[in-house]
């Protein structure tokens, strides 16, 4: 493998590339690293003229695993499958594959903490489920039934596979949470962005909601909801709401 680099972004959509990496190098510039087989370097250079070619160290394709370390939140171990949890029954094992969400991000951990502080009874709806980590955590904490929805079919497929790998029951569906009806539940969790959270709160048919995906100091507009509590971690925030 070789890597081609240049100090400002440019689209490169060739199918012969193995991967991309963006690095902020300061001064408003972003370095784009393009990974390709040596035999494809000439084709890459034709699309990125002037790029620097640098040999890549052996094992580069597995180096990303170093960024996925297990964490503990709400009494649950959240980690990737190549790590060994101390107590499998209290573990949420997520393969960081094609869908967003490994469990290590502060917003995910905050949501799990708020889920763990909730009496585990009734239905849970995970809106914008990504990899399914929050739905699986809810099931591990004793909530049932658990439903996970996302607008991305890949996310729904990944969440379904991760739930099966963790030995929990999670129903999944492809749903546009901003346009289509959402399933009724007792509790919903939505770890997305601030504005989508606000839109989702207005459309939920639930008694309680846990939200995150935004910065500390921010709070979703929540007409019709009473704010119950907030948590912060590493500059991120999460909130619990109940129907007013």
Describe the protein's architecture and organization:
- This protein is an alpha/beta fold and 244 residues long.
- It folds into 2 domains: 2-63, no CATH class; 105-243, Rossmann fold (3-Layer(aba) Sandwich), CATH 3.40.50.150.
- The chain is built from 6 helices and 14 strands.
- The protein has a 7-stranded mixed β-sheet with strand order 10-9-8-11-12-14-13, sandwiched between helices. A 4-stranded antiparallel β-sheet has the order 2-3-1-4, with helices on one face. A 3-stranded mixed β-sheet has the order 5-6-7.
- The radius of gyration is 20 Å and the shape is globular.
Please describe the topology of this protein.
Elements (H helix, E strand, L loop, with lengths): L1 E5 L10 E10 L2 E8 L4 H7 L4 E4 L4 H4 L7 E3 L2 E4 L11 E3 L12 H11 L7 E4 L5 H8 L5 E5 L2 H13 L5 E4 L12 E5 L2 H8 L6 E8 L9 E9 L2 E8 L1
Parallel strand pairs: 6-7, 8-9, 8-11, 9-10, 11-12
Antiparallel strand pairs: 1-3, 1-4, 2-3, 5-6, 12-14, 13-14
């Amino acid at each position: 493998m070789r890597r081609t680099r240049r100090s400002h972004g440019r689209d490169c959509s060739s199918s012969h590339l193995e991967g991309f990496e963006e690095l902020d190098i300061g001064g408003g510039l972003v370095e784009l690293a393009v990974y390709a087989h040596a035999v494809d370097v000439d084709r890459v250079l034709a699309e990125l003229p002037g790029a620097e070619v640098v040999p890549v160290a052996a094992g580069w394709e597995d180096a990303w695993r170093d960024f996925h370390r297990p964490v503990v939140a709400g009494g649950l171990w959240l980690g990737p499958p190549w790590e060994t949890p101390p107590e499998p029954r209290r573990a949420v094992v997520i393969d960081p594959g094609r869908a967003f969400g490994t469990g290590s991000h502060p917003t995910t951990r905050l949501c799990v903490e708020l889920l763990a502080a909730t009496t585990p009874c009734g239905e849970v709806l995970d809106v914008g489920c990504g990899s399914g980590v929050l739905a699986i955590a809810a099931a591990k904490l004793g909530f049932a039934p658990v439903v996970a929805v996302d607008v991305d079919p890949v996310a729904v497929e990944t969440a379904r596979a991760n739930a099966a790998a963790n030995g929990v029951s999670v129903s999944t569906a492809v749903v546009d949470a901003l346009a289509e009806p959402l399933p009724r539940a007792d509790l919903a969790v939505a770890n997305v962005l601030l504005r989508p959270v606000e839109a989702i709160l207005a459309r939920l048919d639930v008694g309680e909601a846990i939200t995150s995906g935004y910065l500390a100091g921010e709070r979703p507009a929540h007409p019709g909801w009473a704010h119950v509590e907030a948590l912060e971690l590493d500059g991120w925030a999460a909130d619990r709401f109940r129907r007013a």
